[in-house]
């Protein structure tokens, strides 16, 4: 009997472990900008450069789903006819054809809705509260019925986007002049209008109430539930930052460690699954993004009732931006995960199941001319100092300008306009430069841990011409590496007796 019980227990444990391994953890992306980008001429390519459809490419990266936002009448906001019902249907059909699951994200606005902006659609201005409820129900039903008529059934539907402050302001504003559940009364009424409309068309769809910040559910949902609010899944946005992502300091809300803690707390407190509906990281630092995302995936996949992770607009390269952004003076979105030629970066490796990051630092860095065409020197790793690089650079002109390129990760560094010693890959960065009129050889040091660089004068230079019969005692190329067999026409650094300078063969 004891042996039989042991065998049965082993089988049960094995079955449980197989269930965890096979758990349906959604990995996806919000690619709502896709059709707008294509209209602007953007192309998308596989890692080896083959042009392909963005939805096929999303599937190829290992993702299983897409998220599409819905605006009521974006033309009325000045944005243009993107993310309206017709545009959403185009993208939904393409996603469905690629075999991807679908999340529909209703903003209940004519433009982006978030904690700081929940604009009432232009067509709903002046409505009574009941009329807004009816409008939410009608809009929700209209879009979902159109999807149903196309044979497409979304797995998840968000009723509102990052509704920390409420929705359809001021109709559904969370009223902080009141206390407890009374604060949420109007918001819950509007949210439930969306919930009920979803269930009327797709009874099996999971309805998400979505907040910004992994810490938000703990203060939001107790009173929302008391106010009668309905939801099947808690959705959160979690955007880890460079300075907090691996922190365990309690106040660091952009930490993966704390996101894990908050997700577990929300599941235990409210007895529903939790999903990260939005995440992203610095598009200019894909190697670090890879490390951050793998860490986030490993943490969330270990939580039984965490439903999945969606990257927000990964197909953006940090350069492209909607025409509307230019009209209102906004910059390009900088938390995408594609290169400027339309290829996915290693930031998306986690979506393909990768569980260990590559070495976060490249093998070398290149010092390039400001037009990006000429290699001036190569920065090599400093032994025993991961992420620190050094090189010798010949400044044959005063105030020499240059850039530093990480060719492995398609990242180009200049200086931060506010601090010339701080490296920056952001749009609008300045050139790096030798801060001196003195020409000569300079020692260049780059530290990718702190993102700082420095230079110091090494030796003055004089250019002389040598023929092949001349053989200097010590000869180096412009990267500082010893050369034993000089090539005619090249320029080298020469150290001979007490003399140093440049010599041309």
Please explain how this structure is put together.
The chain is elongated. The chain has 505 residues and is of the alpha/beta class.
Strand content: 15-25%
- Helical stretch tally: 11
Q: Quick one: how many beta strands?
A: 23
Structural class: alpha/beta
Oligomer: single chain
* Cα gyration radius (Å): 28 Å
Low-confidence stretches: 1-22, 467-472
Distance between the termini: 89 Å
Q: What is the secondary structure topology, with strand pairs?
A:
Blueprint lengths: L1 H21 L3 E5 L3 H6 L14 H7 L4 E6 L3 H4 L7 H13 L3 E6 L22 H21 L6 E4 L6 E2 L4 E2 L11 H17 L4 E7 L4 H10 L6 E5 L18 H15 L3 E6 L6 H16 L4 E7 L10 H6 L36 E4 L6 E7 L6 E8 L5 E6 L4 E6 L2 E6 L7 E2 L6 E8 L4 E8 L3 E3 L8 E3 L14 E6 L2 E6 L1
Parallel strand pairs: 1-2, 1-10, 2-3, 3-4, 4-7, 7-8, 8-9, 9-10, 20-23
Antiparallel strand pairs: 5-6, 11-12, 11-14, 12-13, 13-18, 14-15, 14-17, 15-16, 18-19, 21-22, 22-23
Helix pairs in contact: 6-7, 8-9, 9-10
């Amino acid at each position: 009997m004891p042996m039989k019980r042991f065998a049965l227990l082993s089988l049960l444990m094995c079955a449980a472990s197989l269930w965890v391994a096979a758990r349906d953890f959604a990995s996806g992306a919000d690619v709502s900008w896709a059709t707008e980008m294509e209209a602007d001429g953007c192309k998308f390519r596989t890692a080896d450069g083959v042009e392909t459809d963005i939805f096929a490419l999303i599937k190829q990266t290992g993702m299983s789903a897409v998220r599409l936002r819905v605006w009521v009448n974006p033309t009325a906001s000045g944005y243009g006819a993107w993310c309206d019902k017709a545009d959403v249907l185009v993208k939904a059909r393409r996603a469905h054809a690629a075999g991807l699951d679908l999340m529909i994200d209703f903003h209940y606005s004519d433009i982006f809705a978030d904690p700081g902006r929940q604009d009432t659609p232009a067509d709903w201005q002046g409505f009574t509260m009941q009329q807004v409820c009816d409008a939410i129900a009608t809009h929700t039903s209209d879009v979902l019925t159109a999807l149903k008529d196309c044979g497409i059934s979304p797995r998840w539907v968000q009723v509102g986007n990052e509704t920390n402050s409420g929705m359809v302001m001021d109709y559904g504003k969370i009223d902080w002049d009141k206390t407890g559940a009374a604060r949420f009364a109007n918001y819950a009424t509007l949210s439930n209008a969306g919930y009920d409309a979803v269930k009327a068309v797709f009874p099996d769809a999971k309805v998400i109430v979505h907040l910004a910040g992994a810490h938000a559910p703990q203060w939001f949902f107790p009173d929302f539930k008391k106010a009668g609010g309905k939801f099947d899944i808690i959705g959160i946005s979690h955007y880890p930052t460079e300075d907090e992502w691996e922190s365990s300091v309690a106040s660091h809300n952009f930490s993966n460690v704390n996101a894990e803690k908050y997700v577990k707390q929300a599941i235990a407190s409210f007895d529903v699954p939790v999903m990260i509906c939005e995440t992203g990281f610095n598009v200019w630092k894909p190697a670090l993004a890879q490390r951050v995302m793998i860490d986030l995936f490993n943490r969330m996949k270990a939580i039984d009732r965490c439903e999945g992770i969606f990257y927000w607009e990964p197909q953006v390269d940090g350069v492209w931006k909607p025409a509307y952004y230019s009209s209102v003076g906004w910059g390009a979105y900088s938390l995408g995960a594609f290169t400027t030629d339309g290829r996915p970066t290693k930031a998306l490796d986690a979506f393909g199941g990768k569980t260990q990051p590559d070495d976060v630092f490249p093998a070398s860095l290149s010092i390039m001319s400001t037009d990006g065409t000429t290699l001036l020197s190569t920065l090599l790793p400093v032994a025993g100092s991961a992420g620190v690089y050094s090189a010798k650079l010949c400044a044959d002109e005063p105030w020499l300008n240059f850039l530093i390129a990480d060719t492995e990760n398609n990242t180009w560094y200049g200086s931060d306009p506010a601090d010339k010693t701080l490296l920056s890959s952001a749009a609008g960065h300045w050139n790096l430069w030798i801060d001196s009129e003195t020409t000569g050889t300079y020692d260049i040091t780059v530290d990718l841990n702190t993102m700082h660089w420095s230079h110091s004068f090494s030796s003055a230079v004089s250019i002389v011409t040598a023929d092949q019969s001349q053989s200097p005692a010590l000869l180096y190329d412009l990267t500082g590496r010893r050369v034993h067999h000089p090539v005619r026409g090249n320029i080298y650094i020469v150290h001979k007796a007490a003399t140093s300078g440049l010599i041309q063969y």
